[in-house]
Predict the structure.
Amino acid sequence: MSDISFVRTEMLPQQEPPASSVGVIGWMRENLFSGWLNSVLTVISGLFIFSVVGSLLGWAWSPTWSATSLNECREIATGLGHEGHGACWGVIRDRWVQLLFGFYPPESYWRPILAFILLAVALAPVLFSDKVPGKLIYLTAAYPFIMPFLLWGGTIWGALSAAAGFVIGYFVYKAVEKAAGSLAAVISAVVAAVIWWLFLAAPVTGGLTAILPIGVEPVDSRNFGGMMLSITIGVVAIACSLPIGIVLALGRQSDLLIVKSLCVGFIEFIRGVPLITLLFVASTLLNIFMPPGTNFDIIMRVIIMATLFASAYMAEVIRGGLAALPKGQYEGADSLGLNYWQSQRLIIMPQALKISIPGIVSTFIGLFKDTTLVSVIGLLDPLGLSNAIRADSDWNGIVWELYGFIALMFFVFCFSMSRYSMYLERKLRTDHH
Amino acid sequence: MKKSVFLGALTVAGLAAGAAAAGTLDDVKARGKLNCGVTTGLVGFAAPDANGHWDGFDVGVCRAVAAAVLGDPEAVEFVPTTGKTRFTALASGEVDMLARNTTWTFSRDVDLKFEFVGVNYYDGQGFMVPKELGVSSAKELDGATVCIQTGTTTELNLADFFRANNISYEPVPIETNAEAQQQFLAGACDVYTTDASGLAATRATFENPGNYVVLPEIISKEPLGPLVRHGDNEWGDVVRWTLNALIAGEELGITSANIEELSKGTNNPEINRMLGTEGTLGEMLGLDKDWAKNAIVAGGNYGELFEKNIGESTPIGLARGLNAQWTEGGLLYAPPFR
Amino acid sequence: MTTLTDPPKESFRLSMLIYDTRYRSMTIQVVAMIGFMILIGWLISNTAQNLQDLGKEPSFRFLSEPAGYDINQRLIDYDNQNTHLRAAVIGLLNTLLVAVMGCVTATILGVIIGVLRLSKNWLIAKLMTIYVETFRNVPVLLWIVFAMAVLIETLPAPRDFRGDNPEATMKVLDTVAVTNRGVYVPEPLFSNSLGDVHLFGASSFRFDISLDLIAFLVALGLGLFVRHKIKTRANRIQEATGVRPTTWYLSLAVVALPVLAVFVALGFHLGYPELKGFNFRGGIHMRNSLIALWLALSLYTAAFIAENVRAGILAISKGQTEAAAALGLRPKRIMSLVILPQALRVIIPPLISQYLNLTKNSSLAIAVGYMDLTGTLMGITLNQTGRELETVLLGMLIYLAISLGISVVMNWYNNRVKLVER
């Protein structure tokens, strides 16, 4: 009995933490049941999720993919014993292509697909400037000519002659600049390009087409429909609104009273009225405002009004970008002796536009969602098509499947874009620190 | 910004889309396509199928006109219009004709400056109610909730009818037929009112059509017909006589089945004049001599179009009623081809 | 920036209009003005020419002609023999009604969801994230149509209330009827009513104000005024003595008693909805179209407001929370007393634009047949009269006026709560 020791000589092995604070249980205690209020909220939301998901699955689980009409769906459902309950997915199988492409000729589906893939590629140098080769910027420059050619088709000379206007303008600018200074050069370049577009482009295009008829089958814009119509209106309107928006933003910031008030008036007017009224203008009034005899088709008119609409919002986004630039940048540009346009072009705009990209993306998302409004004036976007589909006696009476499918398509597009814009915001924020 | 060329290119493309000049007939021939305004979708009258091919009774009229003018029933661009946009589309020259369930009224003809070229469907506004309400006359509908499609003459007729009978109602305005049907079936309104043809067509697609009745009252006259712009009489004549050719075709027994045979010459001079084996009717219209033949071949005569799209053999199952030939007690009465 | 020596005095030459910065701005302005004038003139002359070709003459005379159609939701009296202008006024009131209701609920929902998104409860936070992302990324028009479809398909029709063993019954002690035609709630009635005041005679803008309502408001205002007095007195006593007198029963009494007195004097009672004939009669009828539009607009806008609220809360430095915690405040009170009031200043400017968006989006009412300004003036009136130019321009001007009105009011409020920076 001599070596009884009351002092431990070796360390005890470290004990496991109590089961209630690690692992799944610990996580749940921490995050779900940390107090009675939280527990109640957790239980309520759990029940809510359970009931919603349960009834949704019960409805969606319905083997009606192959049905060719609503009545057939009903028969299948009755056969399975749950009458009047259950989705009718046959309509999606029957019409999903139409919901995506509208009435675009099926043999030409590759064209819009290619156009939108190229769009992603062309945007890459702007959006992921650090990850793609810089040469791609040439594609970006050429894209405005490629896209209308692919979507609307026709002869390739049309797109080329539109592009030629810019080339001509550029050379005229270079030629005159040496002789008569930059201002005269700009004016004469613009005049030359306009003359080319208005008077020379058409005969030259006609002549070239007669000699070398290269091109693809032309597609009328009223054959555009479904998701493709929404994307086309959204992309074209945003692209066109960018330059207009920049001009308006600069105008709003300028010291010139008249220019400023014109810009403010335009921006506030457009932002003050609902888009739907502008679409009414497109559908009922725009033809009245144009010279007698001109006749745009309705999709062109909608694109014009959507462009005006987007440019007012774009101007505000870019104004935000301009305001976010430190004053030192402006002063720095001044101290280098740059004039207004030089400093805008070389110093201010590149930075301001970069800051504005998340805003531009969210303007685009907003406009893209708003394109569903064109269904109100009778265009067959996905929502308008859903009405047309329900007017087919096979599918008369379908509701949720179509809305659900359309909502899902929009969600996928908008959600991925908004995630991208968030990523960009984070990236831009780290740049500044 | 090079992107601004978009606008330029689009403007050029838009301008090239065509201008409305005086001679619609020449325009259509030059374009090689007929622009025809239709509804955005109405069962049996106009709806696109899965391939984007439009079908229906109104669509049939468009195709007949295209066939008469251009010789090709497929040479039609269908322009979907809403109740709000249809007249502007026609007035601005965006469409050459409107075949869109449009009621011929004084103010549309005179004040809005359109020309109705005839009637392709005699309709009237009716009421549909669920059987279980036990209503047998529209005059018993005091206090009922009524679903109406907006943008038509229906809401005015309805207001007049209830005012004249001194009973109250609650209007529920609805944009499209599909939504009206949904509300009516769910019981969100007691009564659905629109043109009787629309009621029948809608009822036909119900799960249990037998549970609903169309009330006997027809509260308005709704002569539906194609229309064109005022002031272009040549074009108006073309559309008018194409429609008449379809109607007369049925009367004279010309069908898409026997037309080839008949066009070789018959001993009925009127058939011969119509089909171009005698006389110069086509030339007077500024068309080919077999214009009427083309129009009938496109989708059949009036009776065939009716049977194929909205007749009793279709799910819509409309009876001919007023739309029978005058020889059979209906109102269809094509002027003589002479 | 400025040169040290003045430029040598030169006589004015024409080229200086372009090359001299002193005159160039003038030149640009004049050119811009002339360009603008030419554009406007061009548009007007085109319009005039086109209208002449169409044989139409712009005129607002149609506004004083009988409208001929009925409107279901009328905040002021109207029947189909009233003028188109009156119908437009009804539509305008409906627009304002749904906009105000939407803004209120969207704000409440948005704040709750924005706060809950930052909750420590994982499930709640995720659920709110899903809510925000779902609503933000699907078009509002789709939500409106969706909400309408849900109301129509899931709620019982009035016919389900009929019979001895009905499928549906009225809620809340048999006083509220929830149907797929709308919700019927009890309405306040006065047996000794004071009647109405008629304003604006017989013009299209005429409306009645209930004297009962005025009596009620006067009583309430009086009560609130006295309550305010009591509160200031209590504050004074607290500052002087450190002890705050208990005033809640007094406050309650001075507010409640006058109102009660007015109610008793006027013979207040509730009118309950009852199933009569085809429909429920009596009570206040909130139509489906209103509820669907209201619901969809508030839920949609709430998702955006929630994001603004979240951003506003995150913008408040963590030190504020810690300091408040150090003072011994509980998390809930930290949020309501310290964080939210400060976050409010960050939240208000984007909130203004959300209110504007909601108001403008309310024009999508025609998708569910809610008779707002777009449904009456730019809808049925346009269809019946064929006056596109006049109706659409008038409608746009009215919307513009509403938007500017909201901007002015909200900016005034923003300036009031803005932190005064030194």
Summary: The interface with chain C takes residues 83-84, 87-88, 91, 107-108, 111-113, 130, 132-133, 141-145, 150-152, 155-156, 158-160, 162-163, 169-175, 182-183, 186-190, 230 of chain B (CB under 8 Å). The mean pLDDT of chain B is 85. Chain B has 14 helices and 14 strands. The CA atoms of residues 241 and 286 of chain B lie 12 Å apart.
